[in-house]
TrEMBL record:
<dbReference type="InterPro" id="IPR005119">
    <property type="entry name" value="LysR_subst-bd"/>
</dbReference>
<protein>
    <submittedName>
        <fullName>DNA-binding transcriptional LysR family regulator</fullName>
    </submittedName>
</protein>
<dbReference type="InterPro" id="IPR000847">
    <property type="entry name" value="LysR_HTH_N"/>
</dbReference>
<keyword id="KW-0238">DNA-binding</keyword>
<dbReference type="InterPro" id="IPR011991">
    <property type="entry name" value="ArsR-like_HTH"/>
</dbReference>
<dbReference type="InterPro" id="IPR036388">
    <property type="entry name" value="WH-like_DNA-bd_sf"/>
</dbReference>
<comment type="similarity">
    <text>Belongs to the LysR transcriptional regulatory family.</text>
</comment>
<dbReference type="GO" id="GO:0003677">
    <property type="term" value="F:DNA binding"/>
</dbReference>
<keyword id="KW-0804">Transcription</keyword>
<keyword id="KW-0805">Transcription regulation</keyword>
<dbReference type="InterPro" id="IPR036390">
    <property type="entry name" value="WH_DNA-bd_sf"/>
</dbReference>
<feature type="domain" description="HTH lysR-type">
    <location>
        <begin position="10"/>
        <end position="67"/>
    </location>
</feature>
<dbReference type="Pfam" id="PF00126">
    <property type="entry name" value="HTH_1"/>
</dbReference>
<dbReference type="Pfam" id="PF03466">
    <property type="entry name" value="LysR_substrate"/>
</dbReference>
<dbReference type="GO" id="GO:0003700">
    <property type="term" value="F:DNA-binding transcription factor activity"/>
</dbReference>
<dbReference type="GO" id="GO:0032993">
    <property type="term" value="C:protein-DNA complex"/>
</dbReference>
């Protein structure tokens, strides 16, 4: 007697649910991501497990975790999700449409730099609805956000290898240099460049540990051979700018984002002897990146970032007091 194949035994929707469990790490989180109740998710997983005939999840403390078979099937489910998205895109193309809603997560300063122009570019695609959300997390945590958004704009310091992001498509948008922001009356404000030894003794305003700017501060400390003294921590760059302008410390700030607001308020001076910058990237799961509407938004993002990307190798043109 013939044994039924995998596709005769399972429902693709249940496979995709297993994939969400693998991505989110808990039944509760998978339920939240898919708009179901935890009990409904558990029930569907039990049905899937019964149909494939092997354990897919096992108890782990108060929660569950995937077995080896569960992880293997979740990997297959990722391929299924991508295939379904490609099929949907092809069908939409046949019907002459590329519409839908695209959910974009972007950290604050990249949103300020890119989102207004992105919206202008998407005015030619009224069939696409772009929803934007603020998400600013440690650089190693951006990949996990792709489970809940179609596109995630992330940043990472360019002095370290990127974290493991297996199964995530990555598009580099731009590299943004980080300059030392100084009060206009600071003795170093008129310099063309400053070295780590010049600024290591300053009172620093910085984002939380694990953010790209903080990692560059760590590199400054390593180069200077002394610890950095951080007196304030915040992720809000406009607040950092105000604090620097008011003489309450110095900071590393992204050049393109800060430049227009710096004139007449604070000096931006490049670092010498150290490559200081952050890489801004667009992350997406392959099944979401396969959607035509997502492809349109990604292309518009790349176009909007193009001028900044082209300026990455240009001279720094520091902002200094007149």
């Amino acid at each position: 007697m013939d044994v039924p194949g995998l596709w005769e035994r399972v429902d693709p929707a249940q496979l995709l649910l297993l994939r969400e469990l693998a991505e989110h790490g808990s039944v509760t989180a998978a339920a939240r991501a898919t708009g179901r109740t935890p009990s409904a998710v558990s029930q569907q997983l039990k049905v899937l497990q019964r149909r494939v005939g092997v354990p897919l999840v096992e108890r782990a403390g108060r929660g569950v975790r995937l077995t080896d078979a569960g992880r293997a099937l979740a990997g297959i489910a990722a391929g299924v999700a991508t295939a379904l998205a490609v099929a949907e895109t092809d069908w939409a193309g046949y019907r002459g449409g590329a519409g839908g809603t695209v959910r974009l997560a972007v950290f604050h300063s990249a949103g300020e730099l890119l989102v207004p122009g992105l919206l202008d570019r998407l005015a030619t695609a009224p069939q696409i609805t772009l929803e934007t959300y603020d998400e600013d997390v440690s650089q190693d945590d951006f990949a996990a956000l792709t489970a809940g958004y179609d596109i995630v704009v992330a940043h990472r310091s360019d002095d370290v290898l990127p974290p493991d992001r297996g199964g995530i498509e990555v598009r580099t948008l731009l590299r943004e240099p980080l300059d030392v922001a100084l009060p206009l009356d600071h003795p170093l404000a008129r310099r063309d460049r400053v070295r780590p030894l010049d600024v290591i003794g300053e009172q620093w305003i910085a984002p939380p540990a694990g953010f790209p700017i903080d990692r560059v501060l760590t590199a400054i400390a390593a180069r200077a051979g002394e610890p950095v003294r951080v007196v304030r921590r915040t992720t809000h760059l406009p607040l950092m700018e105000k604090l620097v302008a008011g003489g309450h410390g110095v900071a590393l700030l992204p050049r393109h984002t800060t430049r227009d607001r710096a004139a007449g308020r604070l000096a931006l001076v490049p670092l010498a002897d150290l490559r200081a910058g952050r890489i801004v990237e667009a992350l997406a799961r392959p099944d979401k990146a396969a959607r035509r509407a997502v492809q349109v938004v990604l292309a518009a993002l790349l176009e909007e970032a193009g001028p900044y990307r082209d300026r990455a190798g240009a001279g720094p043109g520091p902002v200094r007091p007149g």
